[in-house]
Amino acid sequence: MHQATTFVRATCQSYPAFMLQAANTAAHTVIGCFTKRRTSLYLLLGTLLLLASSAQAQADSLVFTSWGGAYQEAQTSAWLEPYSAETGVTFIQDSPTDYAQIIAMVESGFVTWDVVNIENDFGIGSSEQYFEPLDYSIIPRDEVIFADDYRVAAILYATVIGYNTEAFDDNVPQSWADFFDLENFPGTRSLPRSPSRYTLEIALIADGVPAEELYPLDVERALAKLDSIKDVAIWWDTGAQAAQHMADGEAVMGMIWNGRIQTAIDEGAPLAIQWNQHIPLADFLTVPRGAPNREQAMEFIAYAVSAAHNYRIANHISYAPSNTEAFEQVNPDIAETLPSFTGRPELAGFFVDDLWWDSNREAIIESFNAWLLN
User: Fold this and answer.
1) d(CA 42, CA 132)
2) Rg for the chain (alpha carbons), in Å?
3) What does the pLDDT look like over 267-301, one tens digit per residue?
4) 33: left (phi over 0), alpha (psi -120 to 50) or beta
5) Peptide bond into 96 cis (omega under 30)
6) What CA–CA distance (Å, rounded) separates 18 from 335?
7) Which one of 232, 250, 361, 372 is most buried, counting C-beta atoms within 10 A?
8) What is the C-alpha separation between 291 and 318, in angstroms, rounded?
9) CA–CA dist 134, 149 (Å, integer)
10) Looking at the DSSP assignment, which residues form a beta bridge with residue 344?
11) Are 179 and 278 a contacting pair, CB within 8 Å?
12) Cα gap 305→313, rounded to integer Å
């Protein structure tokens, strides 16, 4: 964001501190607190100049927040940099996305993020209130696979079983049941520290629960199944950690996002993906309620999910476009690495229930964290 340096003529004694503080906030840099009395006109004019400068800076930039790592780098190359080149809008980037921070910003009325990438378990039901309704007069809702009033899918991806090829011979893991089978597949497992990334679901699938009968989750049964691998489990907070666990041989197998492990494979890591029983997912672009640059944020989202631009994400990471009209523009040489590839068995994956998670997230996380500490 552009910074303005403006001289404000004011007497330290004449003006309340909050007025000087407001001017400082608007311009980022305020120099001058003169000891001679001047009329309030100086302060008024100075403050107006500061606010105008700040408004212009805001109009020329957006704060974009996502999950960091290879994914955010891919978003930057696919969408942010081309958009800047075409429009002149610059981006200030932050990471990782933090739901608690979004809630705190909105409730305090001090929102600094303009566009935020969220996962599919947030921005629905009770958490819709933290986001602006999207402007579907410019965003192509009908072209995108997943879209609702407050969020629109930007990519399609999947949670998969990843494994280190050097840890196994021809007998490689085929299912989540194999993931929990320490006798035939010994070694450390890498799993997400957050249960809302579907750790409980894969435990229940491994324990024989049919996918169509997963919900409501039997948390006690899932944690009992997780007990069977808890002694050999290591926990990740980011996709980069998940890939590194397996690439370094610290874990022989892991629960991981397909794009993160494919990036490591492309860089030469001895890893492979098992697509059986994968979890198809989407990531969404949103605008927090009260975002300072709402209209500009909507314009960028419309650009990123349009057929003309959405496909480019697949050129930088193995995530599929969410715009159905963009599929045909994906490079056929990389199509098999994407979750949208149609050559896999039709029933290879299973879906999760986001609305159930919205209603139960806090209680489940509390139970899971207590289990982790025991």
Assistant:
1) 38
2) 24
3) 999 999 999 999 999 999 999 999 999 999 999 99
4) beta
5) yes
6) 57
7) 361
8) 30
9) 6
10) none
11) no
12) 10
* Helix/strand/coil (H/E/C) assignment for every residue in 127-157: HHHHECCCCCCCCCHHHECCECCCCEEEEEE
The helix (run of H) or strand (run of E) holding residue 366 is helix 354-373
Q: How high is the pLDDT of residue 24?
A: 33
Q: What is the pLDDT of residue 349?
A: 86
Q: Which residue has the higher pLDDT, 49 or 217?
A: 217
CA distance 327 to 307: 8
The mean pLDDT value of the chain amounts to 86
* Closest among 144, 135, 99 to 118, alpha carbons compared: 99
Q: pLDDT-based confidence at 342, cuts 50/70/90?
A: confident
- Work out the number of other CB atoms within 10 angstroms of the CB of residue 295: 11
| Cα 83 from Cα 93, distance rounded (Å) | 14
Reduced to 3 states, what is the DSSP secondary structure of residue 163? strand
Q: Which domains does the chain have, with CATH numbers?
A: 4-57 (no CATH), 61-154+283-337 (3.40.190.10), 157-282+342-373 (3.40.190.10)
The pLDDT assigned to 41 comes to 42
Angle among Cα 353, 303, 51 to the nearest 5 degrees reads 105
3-state helix, strand, coil split of the chain in percent (to 5) is 45, 20, 35
Query: How many percent of the chain have pLDDT more than 70?
Result: 83
* Token reading at 99: 């739901």
Residues 6+ apart with CB under 8 A from 160: 255, 256, 257, 258, 261, 273, 274, 275, 278, 279
